[in-house]
């Protein structure tokens, strides 16, 4: 099994924080511009700092984990067992206040 949480978070943040794609901070004419498909050096620096901060929050503080069973040749009983283990491991990594689901 492998942990795909960091990969998923990194790809989603990269797509959402690409300067000029959805939002650009600072813009060329205004402080915030939306969908202008242009960029600048300052904008790349600001977006990379935001990207680093959000990656730290999601991976270190929150601890996002997506465990996917890696054995494709397993029979159905092993696949069900692996899926159950992956479900439990996702919720075991959640913050302690979410343990209310188990009680």
UniProtKB/TrEMBL annotation:
Residues spanning the membrane: 6-23, 44-68
UniProt KW keywords: Membrane, Transmembrane, Transmembrane helix
Transmembrane helix in keyword set: yes
InterPro entries: DUF3339 (IPR021775)
A UniProt-annotated Pfam family: DUF3339
Keyword Transmembrane helix appears in the UniProt entry: yes
Domain of life of the organism encoding this protein: Eukaryota
Protein name in the entry: Transmembrane protein
Organism: Hibiscus sabdariffa (roselle)
């Amino acid at each position: 099994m492998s942990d795909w949480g960091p990969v998923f978070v990194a790809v989603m943040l990269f797509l959402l924080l690409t300067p000029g794609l959805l939002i650009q901070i600072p813009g060329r004419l205004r402080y915030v511009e939306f969908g202008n498909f242009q960029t600048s050096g300052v904008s790349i620096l600001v977006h990379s700092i935001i990207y680093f901060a959000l990656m730290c929050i999601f991976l270190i503080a929150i601890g996002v984990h997506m465990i996917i069973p890696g054995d494709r040749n397993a029979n159905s009983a092993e696949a069900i067992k692996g899926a159950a283990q992956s479900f439990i491991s996702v919720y075991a990594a959640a913050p302690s206040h979410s343990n209310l689901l188990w009680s």
